[in-house]
């Protein structure tokens, strides 16, 4: 029977509880299945901007696998460090793909002028910020394994998490503003049909998917801020159930939701002028068409033009 032990050569307890072996094994398997599914799907769709998402899933698998092994090795430091970092960092990987999906969605409907942030800066701003938060959290997490540096590490991690929350808040605001502007002002950016380039970009469904996963990542990040702000002796770090309720399960749901509503209709190379997004001349043509009496259909989150019939208007 395993028991909680201090680190070798001292009386410092890296673990504040004996990690649950069944829960660790269960989520290692579940995350493994999801990661394989995501990897296969991004390969089939050639959506390489979803690679960070699969990497995040892989980190979750490693984290829970090492956590399982640490069940009977709570006196060893390396397993504690590895599982801590592998469970702390995946949301930053998920966020990187989420940021890139928004940019490609905006380009897919030729809606760059509806974004409050220039589209060319969207990926640079959010992904660069995401990388910064990734390394800040990783560095702080490593320091937390040391008794003398644990307090400093906690503060660094909190700083990285707060930055992640602020970045995500700006991202959500950008997505919502674009959504409202495009829905109320755009007239014919996307034609919904079963064939042809640019015919099946379900932009609104993709945006709602982004809202869902973003909300879950935001809740998890806020929990982590509270967790580390309360310190090593705080309730969250000393009670394992909080990790599973506010981190493990939400991130699992994020991977499930992203897989079910996968952005497979997006162009993997939106800047090359080809693929599934429409050009400005198509949008302008649709606007002129609308000014002559065309009707706009916003069904299914896409835009479809109904032709104007002169004979009907004379009646």
| Domains (count) | 1
Distance between the termini: 87 Å
Write down the CATH class.
Answer: Mainly Alpha
Strand order of the largest sheet: 1-2
Helix content: 55-70%
Instruction: Spell out the helices and strands N to C.
Output: HHHHHHHHHHEEH
Oligomeric composition of the shown chains: single chain
Per DSSP, the total helix count is 11
Shape, per Cα inertia axes: elongated
Given helix and strand content, the structural type is mainly alpha
Q: How can the largest sheet be summarized? A: 2 strands, antiparallel
Number of strands: 2
The CATH architecture assignment turns out to be Up-down Bundle
The radius of gyration computed from the alpha-carbon positions, rounded to a whole number of angstroms, is 23 Å
Enter the CATH topology name.
Rhopdopsin 7-helix transmembrane proteins
Strand content: under 5%
Low-pLDDT windows of residues: 189-199, 272-291, 293-315
Average of the residue pLDDT scores: 82
Membrane topology: Multi-pass membrane protein
Protein name: RTA1 domain protein
Pfam families: RTA1
InterPro entries: RTA1 (IPR007568)
Write up what this structure looks like.
There is one protein chain. The chain has 315 residues and is mostly helical. The chain has one domain (21-187, 203-267): Rhopdopsin 7-helix transmembrane proteins (Up-down Bundle), CATH 1.20.1070. It is built from 11 helices and 2 strands. It has helices at 21-45, 51-69, 77-88, 90-108, 119-143, 150-185, 203-229, 235-238, 240-260, 280-291, 310-314; strands spanning 295-297, 304-306. Strands 1-2 form a two-stranded antiparallel ribbon. Helix 5 packs antiparallel against helix 6. The N and C termini lie far apart (87 Å). It is found in: Membrane. Residues 272-315 are annotated as: Disordered.
């Amino acid at each position: 029977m395993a028991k909680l032990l201090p680190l070798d050569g001292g009386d410092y307890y890296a673990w504040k509880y004996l990690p649950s072996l069944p829960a660790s094994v269960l989520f290692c398997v579940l995350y493994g299945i999801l990661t394989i599914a995501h990897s296969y799907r991004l390969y089939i769709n050639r959506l390489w901007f979803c690679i960070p998402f699969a990497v995040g899933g892989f980190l979750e698998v490693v984290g829970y696998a090492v956590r399982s092994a640490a069940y009977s090795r709570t006196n060893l430091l390396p397993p504690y460090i590895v599982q801590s970092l592998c469970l702390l960092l995946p949301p930053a990987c998920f966020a990187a793909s989420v940021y890139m999906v928004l940019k490609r969605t905006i380009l897919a409907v030729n809606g760059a002028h509806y974004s409050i942030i220039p589209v060319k800066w969207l990926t640079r701003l959010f992904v660069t910020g995401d990388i910064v938060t990734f390394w800040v959290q990783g560095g702080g997490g490593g320091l937390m394994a040391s008794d003398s540096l644990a307090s400093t590490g906690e503060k660094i991690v909190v700083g990285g998490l707060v930055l992640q929350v602020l970045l995500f808040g700006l991202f959500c605001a950008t997505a919502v503003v674009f959504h409202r502007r495009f829905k109320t002002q755009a007239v014919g950016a996307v034609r919904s049909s079963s064939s042809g380039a640019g015919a099946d970009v379900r932009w609104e469904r993709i945006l709602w998917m982004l809202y869902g996963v973003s909300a879950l990542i935001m809740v998890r990040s806020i929990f982590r801020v509270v967790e580390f702000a309360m310190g090593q002796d705080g309730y969250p770090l000393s009670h394992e159930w909080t990790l599973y309720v506010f981190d493990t399960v939400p991130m699992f749901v994020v991977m499930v939701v992203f897989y079910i509503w996968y952005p497979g209709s997006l162009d993997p190379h939106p800047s090359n002028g080809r693929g599934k997004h429409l050009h400005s001349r198509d949008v302008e043509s649709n606007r002129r068409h609308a000014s002559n009496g065309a009707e706009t259909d916003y069904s299914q989150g896409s835009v479809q033009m109904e032709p104007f019939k002169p004979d009907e208007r004379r009646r």
